[in-house]
Amino acid sequence: MALPALLFVSCNKVLELDEVEAGFAAKGALPEVSIDASTIEVDEYAQTVTLDVTFGGVTADMDSLELGLLSGQDAGFTESSVTLLEEPANGTYRMTVHVAAGATNYVKAMAATTDGAVYSERITVDVPDIPWYYKIAAQYVGTYEPDSNTASQGALAYENHVVKVELSDDLSTVTFYDIDPYVQEKAGTSYVSGRMNYITGELDLDARTVTFTVAGYGADINASPYLLSPISDYSSDGYGLAQSLVFTFSEDASEIQLPWIALFDNEAGNLPFVYSENGITLSAN
């Protein structure tokens, strides 16, 4: 029974070249894109690459047109940064895209419509490294989980909480805004980011640590009556208070490690929320 099937297939009409080309044409034309590698400028401190990109063949009837510049640390651009032209049109543009300092980066331009995408040649850019503190991001995100004791009382994690980070111009201090999610939640509509719930500590450039002043039961987070308390242990007698409160940056500043901490209510004299005994990891966002 296999032979008739083969005979049937062999009787199918072979498409002529003009028919094949007509099929491609029906999908619509795509723009042309190229980059001029001789114009490249690398700013390792801003972690950017800038160069001239030329787009051509752009027409008004191209659907969902995007023209941009891509960068990534892998040649396949599985994870990439992109800068898009606000008003896509033919021409040569000076474009800038984010890159990673101290790493090999790949850069290429792209043009895309609903009919497909085209790319320029891919170039390799070795970006010089910079001191870790210049890599501190403006925002970090992490999950603030309750410790086992607090969780047993029904407390839930604060997921994907965003903390804003600001390094002083003289590199002596770091300020963490929106540091505590419980405070932010309880404040509700009266919450004003940047004016409450922030904490400033002294930066040790060599150790990559930020140390905060602990007075009484914790460090001031500018959200009375709350303090941020460093915790040392838990027993049947309650929680023990650590002597210091220190946050630590990773070598490339991509993460910040917070120790075991709790929120202390200075008026009620209790801990309304105790965070994970394993600490909290915040990742650059």
Structure in a nutshell:
It contains four helices and 21 strands.
Description:
The chain has about 280 residues and is mainly beta. It folds into two domains: about 30-125, Immunoglobulin-like; about 135-285, Lipocalin. The chain is about 10% helix and about 50% strand. It has four helices and 21 strands. The strands form four sheets. It has an eight-stranded antiparallel beta barrel with strand order 9-10-11-12-13-17-18-21. Strands 3, 4, 6, 7 and 8 form a five-stranded antiparallel beta sheet that branches. Strands 14, 15, 16, 19 and 20 form a five-stranded antiparallel beta sheet that branches. The radius of gyration is 28 Å and the shape is elongated. The model is unreliable at about 1-15 and about 20-25 (pLDDT under 50).
Secondary structure topology:
Blueprint: H1 2-10, H2 17-25, E1 32-43, E2 48-56, E3 66-72, E4 80-84, E5 91-98, E6 103-113, E7 116-119, E8 123-127, E9 139-144, H3 148-151, E10 158-167, E11 173-177, H4 181-187, E12 198-204, E13 209-212, E14 219-223, E15 226-235, E16 238-241, E17 245-249, E18 255-258, E19 261-265, E20 270-274, E21 280-284
Antiparallel strand pairs: 1-2, 2-5, 3-4, 3-6, 6-7, 6-8, 9-10, 9-21, 10-11, 11-12, 12-13, 13-17, 14-15, 15-16, 15-19, 17-18, 18-21, 19-20
- Basic shape: elongated
Percent helix, as a range, is: 10-25%
CATH architecture of the largest domain: Beta Barrel
What is the overall number of helices? 4
Order of helices and strands: HHEEEEEEEEEHEEHEEEEEEEEEE
Summed over residues and divided by their number, the pLDDT gives a mean of 91
Number of domains: 2
Major sheet description: 8 strands, antiparallel, barrel
Q: What is the gyration radius calculated from CA atoms?
A: 28 Å
Could you please say which CATH topology of the largest domain applies here?
Lipocalin
Percentage beta strand: over 45%
Pick out the low-confidence regions.
1-15, 19-26
Give the strand line-up of the largest sheet: 9-10-11-12-13-17-18-21
